[in-house]
Amino acid sequence: xxxxxxxxxxxxxxxxxxxxxxxxxxxxxxxxxxxxxxxxxxxxxxxxxxxxxxxxxxxxxxxxxxxxxxxxxxxxxxxxxxxxxxxxxxxxxxxxxxxxxxxxxxxxxxxxxxxxxxxxxxxxxxxxxxxxxxxxxxxxxxxxxxxxxxxxxxxxxxxxxxxxxxxxxxxxxxxxxxxxxxxxxxxxxxxxxxxxxxxxxxxxxxxxxxxxxxxxxxxxxxxxxxxxxxxxxxxxxxxxxxxxxxxxxxxxxxxxxxxxxxxxxxxxxxxxxxxxxxxxxxxxxxxxxxxxxxxxxxxxxxxxxx
Length: 306
Hints:
The chain has helices spanning 13-27, 46-57, 60-74, 93-104, 118-122, 127-134, 161-173, 194-206, 208-219, 236-247, 261-267, 270-277, and strands at residues 2-7, 30-38, 86-91, 108-112, 139-142, 152-156, 179-186, 226-233, 251-255, 281-285, 299-300, 303-304. By secondary structure, the chain is α/β, with parallel strands linked by helices. It has two domains: 2-142, Rossmann fold (3-Layer(aba) Sandwich); 152-304, 3-Layer(aba) Sandwich (Rossmann fold). Strands 3-2-1-4-5-10-9-6-7-8 form a ten-stranded mixed sheet, with helices on both faces. A two-stranded antiparallel ribbon has the order 11-12. β6, α7 (161-173) and β7 (179-186) form a beta-alpha-beta unit. The longest helix is centred in the N-terminal third of the chain and has 15 residues, at 13-27. It is elongated.
């Protein structure tokens, strides 16, 4: 797994780096790091500043000096971390992170997640949510309290392809002895997406209990991993939040799905709504473009789709 460690906030860097290091040591992940200096429209003469900064970094000596000075500040100068590719870029943070992940062929973006004030959440002032919305790869947003592989995770599933992808990846990046809760919300007004409709059809034909059994079998958890299932009824965001408040997991995993434009305006995305709270570390997997196959790893008409 190639992962991009995206550092945008010095205060959030230690936990983010610790998680990347744990994935490197215990999951054989191959990290590369990028430090993003925010220069956006709110900064006067931002274009000139970016141009000047980029001009300086075109000089190999200036670039090496910048990197050498920043590595010890971020504690990326010792052990295996000293060998991680590291670069410094400037510009609009979200776009720079996504572009860096694209160039490096990253399979996962690991970045910090801060809890913002209500007004900041209302206006969308959240880099992690921006990256989740535009990235074509999964995003692991880390709260400062997480300093290694998660030992407790809630995975919100509706048996759609998106939630199956989230469950699969979550089980790959958590501790082998992790406590996993698979949470299904029976909603009075399910979201009209191709993926969620497929999940509902599966539940109607197989039943929730059998769908859970098929999913757990497909996940093939290690011997020390404990997986429990839970069904609740209500609005997905509210019920996921209540459940997480009860058990305070290290990580919440959600699959992001394609939505109709009007549906996004009225209801918003479950993944982005939970991330907006910023209360728990989050794993969000993006929709797969042009994918109309049944949910991976789930039994459909007696056959397990791999």
